[in-house]
Write a structure and sequence with these properties.
With 149 residues, this protein is α+β, with helices and mostly antiparallel strands. It folds into two domains: 6-44, no CATH class; 53-146, K homology (KH) domain (GMP Synthetase, Chain A, domain 3, 2-Layer Sandwich), CATH 3.30.300.20. Helix content is 25%, strand content 30%. The chain has two helices and eight strands. A three-stranded antiparallel β-sheet has the order 1-2-3, with no helix packed on it. It has a three-stranded mixed β-sheet with strand order 5-6-8. Strands 4-7 form a two-stranded antiparallel sheet. A hairpin with a 5-residue loop joins strand 5 (88-93) and strand 6 (99-106).
Length: 149
Amino acid sequence: MSEHRATTTWRRQTVSFAYDDYNRGHEVRFGGGQIVPWSGAPEFKGDAERPNPEEAFVASLSTCHMLTFLAIASRKRFTVDSYDDQAVGRMTKNDGGKLWVSHVILRPRVAFGGERKPSAEEIAEMHHLAHENCFIALSVKTDVTVEHE
């Protein structure tokens, strides 16, 4: 149905290529031409001032859930004024001892405007549908939990 592109570019900036020495900074060019500086996570010798793959993974799940939720709310004729999510991803070791993002918790807080307001049950159902239809959540084996008000 669609393709989504990203080009990652890294160049060595250190004399040594020893694990403790080489730079983790790189750039990602997205399909629309935006260039974003990235790094490894600080826990893996990266730059804390740049986004890292683990944070981007959490952000992808969060924003996908939000965009799906907004589409559902709009189709149900509810007006969303704001949506905030402080998502958290947790890395653990799998059965083989490898690190992975095993769990992501989404904590969306949604404010509705307009005359027609959804009930708590309708909000819960919209979050359920958003999770069940989020392209990114459907693409990963990570456990994703939605904790909404």
